[in-house]
Amino acid sequence: MRPANIVTAITDIMAGIAIAGFLSTGLHDVQAVLQVICLAIAAMGLYGGGVVFNDVFDADLDRIERPERPIPSGAVSRIQAAVLGIYLLLLGILAAFSVGEWPGAIAVAIAVTALVYDKWGKHNTLLGPINMGLCRGLNLLMGISIIPQAIPQYGWLAFVPILYIAAITMISRDEVHGGKKRTLWIAAAGYGVVCLIILVEAAMHHKLPHVIPYILVFLWLIMRPLLKAIREPIGPNIGKAVKGGIIGLIAMNAAWVAAFAIFPYPLIVLALLPLSFLLARAFAVT
User: CDD domains of this UniProt entry (predicted)?
Assistant: First the structure.
């Protein structure tokens, strides 16, 4: 289920609801808190279910390349994993529909997009990274949809995580056998565009000074391992760059919250970073 990654999916929701304006004055009633909790549960179920099915569909390949994973190692059967994946996806969809029709519909789209990636998308050099990015983009959009009226104005921001995750997915394909510096530099350029968009949005909302500290943490998390991989593009270094990019999502989402919400919400999001690091020590991230 990639627990460390699931924490990053929850922060996607926090970023989305902040962008929608749901946190502009804080959470003042139980109903609002429950809506946020249900969307967090939706993100957990959808992300967990998606990565479980990734292992289900990759079981034969993992027996060769990653025999330590749960299915090829014999810790669980393929059928048991599939049942868990179905349960998690259904949990995510139902939790989203409990908030509203828009979040529910987007949750269905996330589940379908994740399964398409797991079965077919990952094998396509061009469409695979976009497909994976679309899962994250829709996750952010599901957060924004907590206020459906905000979708026409801010829905386009879902393209930011699409670009970011597409860049990570592109380099992740080389984490087993090593890769090329050109691919890593393209990913670095994509990261730069993401940072620029966040900073521009923050400036438009007169929150630039509030966002810069989170952007600096974000850059430290993603660029340190990426630059090391660029210097020496071997499999283990690329794997660390991918891991840094995924964990870095928490800092990126904290920056989004800082650009659209009041204090201390961005700090609450960033506070999930140690939890994700802790889980990353115990469970696989990539």
Answer: PT_UbiA_1
CA-to-CA dists, residue 143 to 11, 44, 60, 93, 211, angstroms: 10, 13, 35, 13, 20
Domain harbouring 67, CATH code: 1.10.357.140
CA atoms of 168 and 133, how far apart (whole Å)? 9
In angstroms, the CA 181 to CA 199 distance is 27
**Joined tokens for residue 201:** 């949005």
Q: What residue has token string 């529910």?
A: 104
- Report the percentage of the chain scoring pLDDT > 90: 80
**Segment 154-179, tens digit of pLDDT:** 999 999 999 999 989 888 877 766 67
Q: How far is C-alpha 41 from the geometric centre of its chain's CA atoms?
A: 14
Do the Cβ atoms of 49 and 86 come closer than 8 Å? yes
Rounded distance between C-alpha atoms, residue 227 and residue 165, angstroms: 18
**Pick from 114-123, 168-177, 191-200, 245-254: least confident:** 168-177
- Which residue from 214, 205, 227, 100 is spatially nearest to 157, judged by alpha carbons? 205
Does the pLDDT of residue 6 top 90, yes or no? Answer: yes
Indicate if the alpha-carbon torsion angle 115, 119, 122, 125 is positive or negative. negative
Q: Domains in the chain: how many in total?
A: 1
The pLDDT value recorded for residue 85 is 98
Task: State what percent of residues in the chain have pLDDT above 70.
Answer: 98
Give the pLDDT confidence of 199-223 residue by residue, as tens digits.
999 999 999 999 999 999 999 999 9
> What is the distance between the alpha carbons of residues 286 and 281, in angstroms, rounded to a whole number?
12
Sign of CA dihedral 246, 247, 250, 256: negative
Query: What residue ranges in the chain does DSSP mark as E strands?
Result: none
- Buried residues in 217-239 as b, exposed as e (16+ CB within 10 A): bbbebbbebbebbbeebeeebbb
d(CA 167, CA 197): 16
Q: In the structure, how many helices (H) and strands (E) does the chain have? A: 15, 0
